[in-house]
Amino acid sequence: MQNIQSYHDAFVKHLEAFVTSKQPETLYNPINYILQLGGKRLRPILTLMTAEIFENDYKKALDAALSVEVFHNFSLVHDDIMDDAPLRRGKETVHEKWDINTGILSGDAMLIMAYQLFENYEPHVFQDLAKLFSKTAIEVCEGQQYDVDFETRDDVTIAEYLKMIEYKTAVLVGAAMKMGAIVAEASQECQNSIYDFGRNLGIAFQLQDDYLDAFGDPKTFGKQVGGDIIENKKTYLYLKALEFSNKEDQLQLEHLYGVSPSDPSEKIETIKQLFVATGSAEATKKEIENYTKKAFSVLESIKISEANKNALMAFGENLMNRNV
User: Fold this and answer.
1) What's 261's domain CATH number?
2) What percentage of the chain exceeds 70 in pLDDT?
3) Which of 295, 284, 286 has the alpha carbon at shortest distance from 317?
4) In the predicted model, what is the mean pLDDT of residues 263-290?
5) Of 68, 177, 179, 239, which one is least surrounded by beta carbons within 10 A?
6) In a domain, 90, yes or no
């Protein structure tokens, strides 16, 4: 197996070859812009890693990995329009740099381009990749709709929240890994198991993101700490704090999540204190650990070498111990 940096570098090189100047520039320049904004490239790295774990040349999975990344960025372009977000990875969002119509049309083209990349595979591999992609894409849309619905609901449950992050975030992590297994032509059992590994890791990853949003180091997190609190997002931290609070703290929390002060610093600090005092912060860390262990337990049944199992576990542990 390669190291993570090798997969990253190989993928970025493949991406750069894909990002070319085409006409009309007003359609393709925004696509090239978002694809070159950087990011962790977590999903395509997992696709490449999985292909090699199942004894295949990871280079054969580069187009599948690129498809995952193009789709992921398509979803970000449209999410940013829905959220009216001004920045993505510290730079102007597509709809801000150009306009909303450009963001919609360039995003649409990216979705089609993601499908086109499967045409570079043999028909039976193409069919399996396309079926998985269609299922995943619909689930991501469902997850996004749940997220939008939750903004206006005061009765969101923990189970509903976990389902939302599973669909919005985790299924794409699972699909990224399963695509690597499909390209490697691993058994159906292995494909399904590696999908479950990725899905559970994806849930842990999103819970970790929720936690870091409140308690991360502003120097390394890469986003505004407290952003979810400012936007009154009902994250796992918030829902657990409500569950563990007495009536007085519940009312205070609900009140704070109903206001948007011009200077949110005091609101952020008060809510963070409630997260700690109620035990919500600790419960979130335990749930991150719980889903990471669920992911690792799946590895026991997968027919791969111990060295490859250890590599996947090391990757998962690094992901959960991150501060960005």
Assistant:
1) 1.10.600.10
2) 98
3) 295
4) 96
5) 239
6) no
Give the residue numbers spanning the domain of 244.
198-324
| CA-wise closest residue to 133 among 175, 72, 183 | 175
* Cα 247–Cα 248–Cα 252 angle in degrees, nearest 5: 115
Q: For the chain, what percent of residues have pLDDT higher than 90?
A: 85
Handedness of CA 319, 276, 83, 88 (dihedral sign): negative
Is the pTM higher than 0.90? The answer reads: yes
Q: At which residue do the structure tokens 């977590």 appear? A: 42
pLDDT digits over 209-246, tens only? 999 999 987 766 556 678 899 989 999 999 999 999 99
Whether 26 is covered by a domain: the verdict is no
Please tell me which residue, 321 or 249, carries the higher pLDDT value. 249
- Number of structural domains found in the chain: 1
pLDDT band at 92 (very low <50, low <70, confident <90, very high): very high
Does any domain span residue 14?
no
Of 202, 172, 146, 226, give the one whose Cα is nearest residue 64.
172
pLDDT(50) > 80: yes
The dihedral of CA 154, 160, 161, 164: what is its sign? Answer: negative
